[in-house]
Structure formats: C-alpha cells, structure tokens
Amino acid sequence: MDDTGTIHHDPPNERPLSLDLRRIEEVVERDLAGTALGLIVLELRDKRAGGNAKHSSHSSYNQYSTYSMMTIGC
Amino acid sequence: MPDPDSMSIPQPAPIHLFICKVASRCNIDCDYCYVYHHVDQGWRQQPSRMSLATAAQLGRRINEHAARHQLPSIEVVMHGGEPLLVGPEYLRQWCDTVDAEVQETKVSFAMQTNGTLFDERALAFCLERNVKVGLSLDGPRTVNDLHRFDRKGRSTFASVERALFLLSQGAGRSIWSGFLSVIDIRSDPLEVYSYLRSFNPKLIELLLPLGHYDLRPPGKDSAESTPYADWMLAIFREWYNERPQTTMIRRFRDVIALLAGATDSSEEWGVQPVDFAVIETNGDIEAVDSLKTTYSGANHLGLNVFRHSFDEMLEVPLVAARQARFESLCETCKSCPVVNICGGGYLPHRYSRNGGFQNPSVYCADLKKLINEVYAVVARDVGECLQ
Question: What is the tens place of the pLDDT at every residue in B132-157?
Fold first, then answer.
C-alpha cells in the first residue's frame, strides 16, 4: 500500500509450485527418516487412511482441524 | 465479498470443529488480543460463561449436524477468553452436558488455555476426560513479557511455566498437544525456537500477529518487506535440519504438505473449505473470531443455537465464501503461482476499509518468500527440478 492508501499487487504469471509426494516418500525412506520431512510423510500417510479437510489456527487443538488459534492433536 | 449466488459450491463442507467460548472473559491482558484489544467489543454483551442450558442446546445442534452429514467424529474445543476461569468442575459438567446430547458421532474435547490457571485440578480433569490441551506461550520470559501481562501489567510467565511443567512431564504429556505462539519479530527466532523445543512439544503453531491494510503488522514497514518470512525462515532452517525431529511446526508442515498435494491444512493456508464454527457464551454462532480485528461485527452471523442449525450457518454469505474459497479470492490471488499454498492468506489479513477482503494478504510478500524458500529447500533434497 502506498502513501495514498492505494493497494498495489504484483502481476503474477509464473507456473504453480508443486512437489511430488511419491518422490518425497522415496527420498525419506532412503535418506531422510527421522527428519522433519519424514515426520510430515508419516503424518500424511496416517491421514490418507482417515481423510480430513481443513484446520483452524487459533488454538492448539487438533492439528487436523482448520481453526488456526489452536494446537491440539496428539 | 463476492455474491455467493455467483459462486460454484459443489456441496458445503460440514462442520467438524466447534470452538466454544465457555468463558467470555480472561484473567490476563495480552496487548495483542483480538477479543479485547481490537475494534469489535462484542464480548461486553456476552454472559461471562456459557450456561449448561446453552451447552445442552449446543450438543443437540452438534448431534443434528453430525447425523445429517454422517460425521464419524467431531471436535469440541473449550475456548475463551480463558476457559479455566469457570473452573475445572464446571468444565466437567459442561463436557458432560454436551456429551449427553450427542449420540450420532464421537466427540473429542480439547481446550486452549493461557496456562495461568492450569493447576493439578485442571490436569486431573483433562486426564479424566482425555481433554487435549493447547498452551499459549510466545517463548522464554523475555519474549512472553513483551505482550502477555496480568491485569496489573505484571509478567504472567512464572504461572504459565508452572502449567508447562505439568503438561510436558509425566501423565500430562498424554494430553498436551503443543504451543500456540504469536510471533514478535523483535525477538530472536532461534532463541524462541530453542526454548519451545526444549519441552519436546508435539506441535508448535507460529502465528502471525493479526493485522491488515489498515492495521499494519508491527515492523511491516512496506508491502514488499519480509521481516516475518525472515524470522520464520531462521526457525525453518534449524527445524528442517534437526535429526531426529519429533516436533511438528504446523506452518512449515502445511506449506510442504500442500506443495505435495495434501488437501488439509490450517485455515490460514490452502484453498479448501473452512470447517469450523465459533459459538459464543450466549449460543451465538459466529465466523472465525479473529475477524474482530477488522471491523465491529465482522464475525457476527445473526445466528444462535437456540434458533438456528449449523447447516443454516453454511448458507450465510461470509461462510459460503470461505467454503468456496478460491472463487472468493481477488483476481491477483487467483492467478498467483502459490495460491494453492497460501490460499490468498488468512482472511483477517486481507482486509482493508476500501476493498473489504478482496486483497492479497497484508503478509503477501512474506508468504511468497516463505513458500518459495521452503519449496527450494525441499525440492533440492528430493532432487526435483527447481522452477
């Protein structure tokens, strides 16, 4: 936002970013077990079995819910 | 907000998470709190605690929603204010009351607390009911004391640390889910991480301070500056390279998981529907409570559990927009290469008086930098071509 209160946005035109989960799983199994990436792969595998939508961020409740003020989820 | 009638909503996502304000007041006075220190002061009209009659009606509405959508499980979070202000015995009655009305699904209880009232009695209640506990703490004493004071302006650190010892050791570990920590970029990120990590939490959630175009986040001097990305990336590099790693940092997890095609994340990320409701102490059903930082009444939906179902909530324009999330974004976000990851940013962070929520996040530059750098590190490790 400039001094006049106008909000300027960058014109985006690049390709979407993505990673291949299968490739990540292979590399984790081979070299990165026990790392943060390994932890994420384990969690995604667990979820694949159960399925889930979205979380919240203002609590530490369930890491599988969308609300973001929370962090619960053991 | 775009006209919801023009949006394509295949099927509304049902509510899985019920954030319940069991107490509308708090015993401490954090200066950044979105409930008490921002434009919406709706808490003043709320009863200080949710009555058991309201809890019973809430339980009936949850049951109705779960039955209609055949939900195998849902989560109920005791939130506030500070939920422990009503005391563990009342919370036990409250849980029993909700539970007694829900037969169609499995209910899991959780609580988010500032920790200052979390004592052995609270621990016993949480263990007895298997209530998962999230603890709000921003870091070591020097960081906590930047914002988290009691009502006389004194540090709350010692009392929170007592709770932390109860939760991080012995039986407490089984119900402790982790930390909720608001970022202050004046702090040393590695000092914050090292402190939080020393308790071996399962999860750390690093929260960006609530701000928007008319309430510039602290230290965010220009739209292009990236102080928050720089702060988080310092922790990311440390966390990513630690081995063994047993602590999840949800912000980084969400970026990597979404890059790899996951369909779940915090509401702050991704373009999937948001699946939670906030219930005030009087039974009002509301949208995400952090909208209180944008304008007065922003989170009010005009619904109440005594008169409305949770399915009616899904039809309210603000909620429908968060369900049809991609369609509700501004054109700049829709064509951005990282939109599937950032989801246009957290809803309150997009607000401006002139444009409403039709803006990229005020943290757009930070989010892009964080996503691009996390992507570059992981792509390098897994041998994928960098774009």
Answer: 999 999 999 999 999 999 999 999 99
Q: Are A7 and B352 in contact (CB < 8 Å)?
A: yes
Q: For residue B54, what are the contacts with CB-CB under 8 A and spacing of at least 6?
A: B281, B282, B283, B305, B306
Chain B residue with the nearest C-alpha to that of A40: B253
Q: Is the dihedral of CA B139, B144, B150, B155 positive or negative?
A: positive
d(CA B90, CA B88): 5
Cβ contacts of B174 on chain A, cutoff 8 Å: 74
**Does residue B179 contact residue B196 with C-beta atoms inside 8 Å?**
yes
Distance from CA of A55 to the nearest CA of B (A): 4
> B31, B149 in Cβ contact below 8 A?
yes
Please give the ipTM for the structure prediction.
0.85
The proportion of chain B whose per-residue pLDDT surpasses 70, expressed as a percent, equals 96
- What is the tens place of the pLDDT at every residue in B81-113? 999 999 999 999 999 999 999 999 999 999 999
pLDDT of residue A51: 47
Q: Does A25 touch chain B (CB under 8 A)?
A: no
Query: Nearest Cβ partner of B378 from A19, A57, A65?
Result: A19
- B264 → closest Cβ in A16, A35, A53: A53
**CB spacing of A72 vs B112 below 8 angstroms:** yes
- Bin B95: left if φ > 0, else alpha if -120 < ψ < 50, else beta: alpha
**Rounded distance, CA B7 to CA B319, Å?**
12
